[in-house]
Amino acid sequence: MKRSMLFVALASAMLGSTAVQAGESEFDGSWIGGKIGSNRSNVTGVDTRSATTYGLEGGHNWNMDGFLLGVNGFIDSNSNAAHAPAPFSYGSSAYGIDAKLGIDGGNWMPYAKIGYARTNGNGAASNIGGSAAHLGLGIEYKFAPQWSVAGEYTTGSGKNAASKLNNDNFTIGVNYYFDTPKPVVVPPKEEVKQPTPPAPQADAWKTLLEEKPVTIDGANFDTDSAKLRDTAIPRLNEVVSFASKYPDAHLQVGGHTDSRGSKPYNQKLSEKRAASVKKYLVNNGVDAARISTSGYGMEQPVADNKTAEGRAQNRRVEIRSVVKEEKRVRVTK
Questions:
Q1: Is-contact 116 126, C-beta < 8 A?
Q2: Using CA atoms, how far apart are residues 112 and 122, in angstroms rounded to an integer?
Q3: How do residues 103-135 score in pLDDT, each as one tens digit?
Q4: Which of 19, 119, 219, 301 has the fewest Cβ atoms surrounding its Cβ within 10 A?
Q5: Residue-wise pLDDT tens digits, 5-22
Q6: In this structure, how many other beta carbons lie within 10 angstroms of the beta carbon of residue 157?
Q7: Is this structure's pTM higher than 0.85?
Q8: How far apart are the C-alpha atoms of 291 and 181, rounded to whole Å?
């Protein structure tokens, strides 16, 4: 009971310390992973020993503006070890489901887990097993758009009458995230000038629809990140106003990176930056069908990548559009 109260208190403290922040999280979406580490176990009346533990898990995370809520299932297999005072060799297995609460820290996510698991002993402990609370603490680091590494501590137990089997696991795992933004490219519509019929007089006026290109700097980003900065919000709100003023305008959102990192990685990062801007515009009332996204990686710099200032300018999103404005011209017969 004391251990359960401690983990609930830690999870509550994590929730209370979160700061609300708009934009996408690096840890959104579905994932699957494997882990390996050390299991420390004991049964009532025998000593505690360590053995190797292996596990598989998978789940889904939801971004909640500053923190993440998730759910995951897991299977653990703990190797056999010989325990004293008698030759008492046993191992165990466990499976169950957890709820997860994590703090969104960019590429880092500390988290707490609480759930329910079934633990079964084997070998000399094959008659011991049962269901109980499953608790955990960990921290996860996203080192690539779809890959992360996590260090974790979990604890659970199984009980049969007066005999109780306790497991404490310390593991390192690698996770793969399935969800990643994909560019949606919609070719711009061909604009055609549509003159109005001239008035029946010698000197007359007619109205032409003139095409006018528009380019808007949408947002700049931190290194290796697709999360919107707070300073980008006023600029993106101007884009929302522009879209409202010109309801027929199509928005082409292009993401860019600086020159650091590999070309394939920067291509994916530029696509995620464009998708992050599109998500903000859609959430603020712009029809998604009016927005196309593209990623250009590090191929179109606007500043020198040899300086920090130049690289900061190159980590950007640009929004392009073509609007039609009326222009009156005099026609003389």
A1: no
A2: 29
A3: 988 889 999 999 999 999 898 888 888 899 999
A4: 19
A5: 544 444 444 444 443 333
A6: 23
A7: no
A8: 14
Name 187's bridge partners: none
C-alpha dihedral over 144, 105, 240, 256, to 10 degrees?
A: -30
How far apart, in whole angstroms, are the C-alpha atoms of residue 177 and residue 235?
Answer: 31
Rounded Cα–Cα distance for residues 269 and 170 (Å): 32
Residue in the structure block whose two tokens are 């003159």: 195
Element (H, E) at 225: none
Query: What is d(CA 280, CA 291) in angstroms, rounded to the nearest whole number?
Result: 11
The helix/strand/coil state of 190 is coil
Pick from 218, 183, 242: nearest CA to 319: 218
Kindly state the tokens that stand for 129: 């097993």
What does the DSSP 8-state code read for residue 310? Answer: H
CA distance 92 to 51: 10
| Residue 290 CB-half CA count within 13 A | 21
Pairs from 224-227 (Cβ < 8 Å, separation ≥ 24): 224/107, 224/261, 224/269, 225/26, 225/106, 225/107, 226/24, 226/26, 226/181, 226/269, 226/272, 226/273, 226/275, 226/276, 227/21, 227/23, 227/24, 227/25, 227/26, 227/106, 227/276
The answer to whether 138 and 111 are in contact (CB under 8 A) is yes
Q: What is the C-alpha separation between 276 and 232, in angstroms, rounded?
A: 11
